[in-house]
Amino acid sequence: MIGSIAAILTTFAFLPQVVRVVKTKDTESIALGMYVMQVIGIALWLAHGFHIGDLPLILANSVSFLLSGIILIYKLKYK
Amino acid sequence: MIGSIAAILTTFAFLPQVVRVVKTKDTESIALGMYVMQVIGIALWLAHGFHIGDLPLILANSVSFLLSGIILIYKLKYK
User: Fold this and answer.
1) pTM of the model
2) B22 touching A (Cβ < 8 Å)
3) CA-CA distance, A35 to B13, in Å (whole number)?
4) What is the pLDDT of residues A16-38, one digit of tens each?
5) Topology given in CATH for the domain delimited by A1-77
6) Whose C-alpha in A3, A22, A59, B62 is 20 to 30 A from the C-alpha of B47?
7) How far is CA A18 from the centre of its chain?
8) Could you tell me the residue ranges of all domains in chain B?
9) B16 and A37 in contact by Cβ < 8 A?
10) What number of helices (H) and strands (E) belong to chain B?
């Protein structure tokens, strides 16, 4: 139960940041390295999830991958 | 193996952002809501880790809690 709430919070934590960069196109104080590491790391979590066939891992990391991917794209586009 | 690399990447992804905010004190484009959710979510992951006695979960989330906590403190201090 605590684990599920934890998973939901850390998965959707990227959402306020996505909303902010999409609205403002301001990514000045965001570290590029953070989102490069996040996107690669989350892609590997996803691969791991498929490998062990774990649905919660696949679902949570699909959402995180999408959200942090959007932030990375905005960071690369609007430096 | 893929899971371990994934864990290391997503855990230490916060580090470039910590270095950036500590150096520049610039947190303008960082969403407060993201780090509020991260810090609470990671604290719950940590609680879950202690509950099920899983050392990797405890170690990874201790590091993430510290790093995202620093970003949250800087965001609150230098708006």
Assistant:
1) 0.94
2) no
3) 7
4) 999 999 999 999 999 999 999 99
5) Monooxygenase (1.20.1280)
6) A59
7) 9
8) 1-77
9) yes
10) 4, 0
